[in-house]
Design brief:
The structure is a single chain. With 387 residues, this protein is mainly alpha-helical. It is 56% helix and 8% strand. The radius of gyration is 22 Å and the shape is globular.
């Protein structure tokens, strides 16, 4: 179940696909993000006025299609016909929970207990499901490369060559490694983006004052209709950015990260010395909730990310994407995708929810999420939306 690479191999594999997540590539993905954002808004509008539902499942379907149509290089038809896609889409969180449980419960490291408790059967199912889905994606791209011609593809625009094609053409990865890397980037792109986007929508539902601020700002920047959302527009939506960052603080997509010290280093003015080979664990969830760094850390307050508040705070108190050469590869992709989806939804719908965010139970594992889902209601906005 585990696929772990590090050192030179990890750096090499990351370098291959880095162009797919860069700013130039993101501009090419805007058409997909806008089209899928419109579809998401339309799907949510069909839920019915006042009906309570978990928005995550609609959002993860949208982010899955976006990832397939951009990073995976698939067509809409291909995406709709990938075997086991629905299973993977709906059970990815279960897979992560399975991995996390095995990590923290020592008795599951004993093979016979792992088998007797039925955990091995679950793992075999997950592996089979993932392998079938990702093998199909890779085979689709192999066939496409043969039909399109590698030379013509490179001459067309290498900057937007998708992740799978880059892995296939680089000649550095075995067929099995290509399948495993494809799954890794697939799920970390679609599942993580879905969690964050769902969190933003739920925050806006619980914080009507901030929802009004974000909506009014959207209208001021883009106008009252369904105009196309450009990357330049997103940069002007400061209130949306504040809500987005507060969601990342409140629900970090990685509850903790681990790093290995390569060279001996002294920290805190020499008070502590970390030897080479030391494993350092950085609890992002704890860091983002530390009352010494954040006022009322258990409250949801996007205002803490206003420009003036950010200037007064040490930048290392907020590191949702980690730092340095091992920071999150998909951070720019996620920002553009999630904000575009939110703009489309908010222009069409008013979001509503009951209670206080701080009263919602959290599930802290590999990532942090709301334990009982992202439950909200929607109703149409009164303003007429131009077609």
């Amino acid at each position: 179940m585990f696929y772990s690479i590090k050192g030179p191999t990890w750096r090499s594999h990351r370098k291959i696909v880095t162009p797919c997540y860069g700013k130039k590539a993101i501009r090419h993905y805007a058409d997909v993000f806008n089209a899928e954002g419109r579809r998401l808004a339309e799907a949510l509008a069909r839920k019915g006025d006042g009906v309570k539902f978990d928005v995550y499942f609609d959002v993860v379907r949208t982010t899955t299609h976006c990832v397939c149509l951009t990073l995976m290089g698939l067509s809409k038809e291909d995406t709709q016909n990938i075997p086991r896609m629905e299973e993977v889409m709906l059970t990815t969180q279960e897979m992560y929970n399975h991995i996390f449980t095995k990590m923290i419960k020592w008795w599951l490291q004993i093979s016979i207990l792992y088998w007797l408790l039925g955990e091995k059967k679950k793992e075999d199912y997950y592996i089979k499901t993932l392998t079938e889905m990702c093998s199909h994606i890779v085979e689709k791209r192999r066939i496409a490369l043969n039909n399109e011609g590698v030379r013509n593809l490179k001459e067309n625009d290498e900057k937007i060559m998708n992740v799978v094609d880059r892995y296939i053409l680089c000649g550095e990865l075995s067929p099995q490694e290509i399948v495993l890397e494809t799954f890794g980037l697939f799920t970390t792109s679609q599942e993580a983006s879905a969690k964050i986007a769902s969190g933003v929508l739920l925050f806006l539902a619980h914080l009507p004052v901030w929802q009004d601020k974000v909506y009014n700002e959207i209208v001021a920047v883009l106008g009252p209709g369904d105009s196309y959302v450009h990357e330049e527009d997103l940069k002007k939506l400061l209130y949306l950015d504040m809500v987005y960052k507060e969601v990342l603080r409140y629900l970090p997509i990685a509850a903790l990260i681990q790093r290995t010290v390569e060279d001996e280093i002294a920290i805190k003015n020499g008070e502590y010395v970390l030897s080479a080979g030391t494993t350092v664990t950085i609890p992002l969830h704890g860091l983002h909730r530390d009352p010494r760094l954040w006022e009322d850390p258990d409250e949801a307050d996007p205002g803490r990310f206003s420009p003036e508040n950010v200037r007064q705070r040490d930048p290392n108190t907020f590191i949702p994407y980690s730092l340095g050469p091992m920071d999150c590869l998909g951070r720019v992709y996620a920002v553009s995708l999630i904000k575009t989806l939110v703009v489309w939804v908010l222009r069409r719908l008013v979001l509503e929810a009951e209670g206080n965010i701080r009263d919602l139970e959290l599930h802290v594992a590999i990532s942090v999420k709301f334990a009982k889902g992202y439950n909200l209601r929607v109703r149409p906005r009164l303003q007429n939306v131009s077609k």
